[in-house]
Amino acid sequence: MIKRRTSDLLVPLIGVAVMLALWYLAVKTRVIDPVLLPLPTDTARAAWKGFNGKLGTDFLITLERTALAIALASAIGIPVGLILGASEKLYRSLEFVVDFFRSTPATAIFPLFLLLFGVDDKTKVYVATFAASLAIIFNVAYGVMNARKTRLLAAWLMGARRHQILLVILLESFPQTFIGLRTGVSLALIVVIVAEMFIGSKDGLGNSIFEAQQLFEMPAMYAAIFASGALGYGLNLLFRLIEKRVVHWAGK
Amino acid sequence: MALAITAVREAPAAAERPHITIRGLSKRFDEMVVYDKFDLDIPRGKIISVFGPNGCGKSTLINLMAGLIPKDGGEILFDGMRVEDVKIGYVFQNYREALFPWLRAHENIEYPLKFMRLPKPERRRRVEALVARLGVRLDLNRYPYEMSGGQQQLVSIMRALVIEPEVLFLDEPFSALDYEMTLFMREQLQRVFMDTGTTTIIVSHDLEEAVYVADEILLLTRAPTRVADFVTFGAPRPRTDATLSEPDFVRVKSHSLAVFQREVRR
Q1: How many Cβ contacts (< 8 angstroms) between chains A and B?
Q2: pLDDT (tens digit, 9 = 90+) per residue, B110-123?
Q3: What is d(CA A15, CA A36) in angstroms, rounded to the nearest whole number?
Q4: Residues of A whose CB is below 8 A from B101
Q5: Rounded to 10 degrees, what is the CA torsion of A16, A20, A22, A25?
Q6: Under a CB-based contact definition with an 8 Å cutoff, are residues B222 and B32 in contact?
Q7: Most CB contacts within 10 A, which of A181, A201, A231, B210?
Q8: Taking the domains of chain A in order of start, what are their residue ranges?
C-alpha cells in the first residue's frame, strides 16, 4: 500500500477553504443578498451559540430518533432479509412488493402513519424505520442469494453441519448487509428531519431549521442545516468504520 | 478353515487392489448423457490425471466421485465404502471462492478439523506439523485476499490435506495461475505426494501438466464418456524440468496427444 503523507491528508481541506472563500466573497461583494446568506463568520457564531443551547439539544434528539429507527429497522430487516434470501421462491413472490414500497417515497406515507400512530414522537421514528427496513431487507436478501455456491459446497464437503453452513451464508451476506445499513441510515435521517419539519413538531434539527426560517433567523437556519450535514456525515463515517472492521474482506 | 485360507490367498495384496471402483456409473444433465454404464478402477497411492476433450465430463467425474453432485445410477466405492464414510480432500479451481475471506489462512486450514471434534491446540498443532512437513514458507496470519493467487491455492491444498484424506481431488487447480506459479505449484504437489502417497486425482486441461504430474493418465472420450486409454508414465520422482525432454515423457505425451486427437475428431 502507498503510504499517505500528512500533506496528502490536507488535500480535502482545499475544497473547504475554497468554498468558504467563495461564500465570504459572494456576500462581501453583494453578489448574494446578505439577508439570505449571512457571512460564514456569523453562521459560525450562530452555530457556536446554538450548540450550547437549543441546537445542541435538537441535534441529540434527531440523533436519538435516527439511531432508534435504524436499530428497529435492523431488528426487523435483517431477519426478514435472511428468510427471504434463503428461499428463492419466497423472495421472487415478494420481490415486487418489497421493491415497490422501497421505491415509494417514505414521506408519501406520512399521513397514513399519522392516522395509525397519532401526532406523536414515535410516529417519526416509525416512518423512518419503515423506509430503512425496506432498504435493509432488500440488501440482506440479495446478499444471502448471492452467497458463493463454491464456498457453501466447500464447507459442506469438509463436513459442516446445517447450522455451520448457515453461518457461512450469514457471513457471505455481511458485505451487502452493510450496504443496506448505510443506505438505511441515510434514508432514516432524511425521513426524521422531514418529519420534524411538519408533523406538529417541537424539537429536532428539522424543527430547528423550519423555525429559524419562519422567524427569518438566517444564521441560525444555516447553523442548523450544517448541523444536519454534520450528523449525516458523521453517521455515514461511523458506519464505514464499523464496516471496515467487521467486513474487512468486502470488495477484495 | 481350508476355505478361509484359500480366500486369503486369492485376495490380492492391499496395495494391488484398486482403491476406487466405479461400476455402472450413469449421469445425465437434462437430455445430455455424460456417463452411461461407466466402469473404472483407480489404483491406490498414485497420481491420476484426467484429460479429455472439452465437455467430456472430466470435472463431472471427480465431482461424482467426491459426492458433490448426485449420480443417476451405478456405484462408486472406496475400498468398498461409500464416499460419505471416507475422508476426502477437494481442491476447487476457483480458490478465490473456495477459501473463507473472513478467516486468516491458518484458520482456513484448521476449518475442516473443527468437524473432527479436535480441541483448538490440537488443530493448531496439526496445521503447524503440515506446514513443517511441506516446508511451506508463508505468513499464515494473513487473510486470503492479502495473498497471491498461488499462495491462496496452496492454502486451499493445505486445507484439503490437513485432515489426512484417503483421496485428494483437484479440479484444474492451477488453471487460474500464471505460468511461473503453475510450475511452482506442480513442484509443491509433487512434494506433497512424495511425502504422503495419497491417492490423488487431478483434472487438467494441459496435456504437458497432465503427463508430468501423473503416474497414470486417464484419457476420456467425448460424451457419452468412455475410457479412451489409461496410460502409465513411470518416470521416477522427483521429476524436474529435465523430465520434460526425456524420451519416455515425449513418448507418453505424443501417444496421449494422438489418442486425444482421435477422440476430438471422432
Answers
A1: 46
A2: 999 999 888 999 99
A3: 23
A4: 249, 252
A5: -160
A6: no
A7: B210
A8: 1-32+39-44, 53-246
Question: Do B65 and B38 form a contact (C-beta atoms < 8 A)?
Answer: no
CA nearest B83 in A: which residue? A157
| Residue-level pLDDT at B13 | 55
Per the CB < 8 Å rule, is B100 touching A171? yes
CATH of A53-246, one of 1.10.340.30, 3.30.300.30, 3.20.190.10, 1.10.3720.10: 1.10.3720.10
- Does A102 or A5 have the greater pLDDT score? A102
| Predicted pLDDT at A51 | 86
Q: Band of the pLDDT at B3, cuts 50, 70, 90?
A: very low
Min Cα–Cα distance to chain A from B232, Å? 30
| B265 or A60, higher pLDDT | A60
The C-alpha R_g of chain A, in whole angstroms, comes to 22
Q: Report, at the CATH architecture level, how domain B13-265 is classified.
A: 3-Layer(aba) Sandwich (3.40)
**Average pLDDT of the residues in B159-165:** 94
- Residue spans of the domains in chain B: they are 13-265
Dihedral (C-alpha) A39, A43, A48, A51: value to the nearest 10 degrees? 180
3-state SS assignment for residue B32: strand
Q: Do B88 and A158 touch (CB under 8 A)?
A: no
pLDDT band, residue A2 (cuts 50/70/90): low
In this prediction, residue A118 carries a pLDDT of: 85
Contact A243, A252 (CB under 8 A): no
The answer to whether A176 touches A139, Cβ cutoff 8 Å, is yes
pTM of this structure: 0.83
Residues of B in contact with A143 (CB under 8 A): none
Could you say which of B66, B68, B143 has the minimum Cβ distance to residue A249? Answer: B143
List the single best residue of A146, A150, A168 to mutate versus B (max B Cβ within 10 A): A150
